[in-house]
Amino acid sequence: MGCVSSKQFKRAAAYEDSSILAKETTFSVNEVEALRELYKKISHSIFKDGLIHKEEFQLALFRNSNKKNLFADRIFDLFDLKRNGVIEFGEFVRSLNIFHPDTPMAEKIAFAFRLYDLRGTGFIEHEELKEMVLAILNESDLILSDDAVEQIVDQTFKQADLNDDGKIDPEEWKAFASKNPGLLKNMTLPYLKDITMAFPSFVLNSGATDEEL
User: Fold this and answer.
1) Which of 99, 140, 141, 195 could form a disulfide with 31 if both were Cys (CB 3.0 to 4.6 A apart)?
2) 83 with 138, same domain?
């Protein structure tokens, strides 16, 4: 078998048939094509190699390619389905599908669980939840005292850890999220409902503006 060149890999990673992606997700073929244009913009913002690197992802989401943020790192890691350090086009579309308004709530709940399960143990532990709460507060430029953060985490565990074993399992998380829908508010991006109409503002909102690209 011959070796696949870097250029061939990048072309294959960036292409992936729109009709197949449309069948596998909530997006239409036209919406997948609109996402392809967005993907091209983001993937050429820094490295210009047709693949989205972590710095480009952070620039698009948070307008900052250097700021360390656990929340951004976790989102990137979950989008990077192949665990190869970049987000390919198919991964981009399939992962964004989680945030579509028409995606079943069960899928959003499962994604949020993986987001908080920092160590991939299949449970959310006290320290993991605290780390994520701090990261989200930091990204929102909110500052709370250590006592206030501990109170948030303790209260969450009091409600979610039904068997009181010091960790939250997927079923407990599902029950907790179902009773607290506000927890998943950021798991839905309304403009994905019609990305072809919202595309110009979506690019601007993503941070991948023409000025920055």
Assistant:
1) 195
2) no
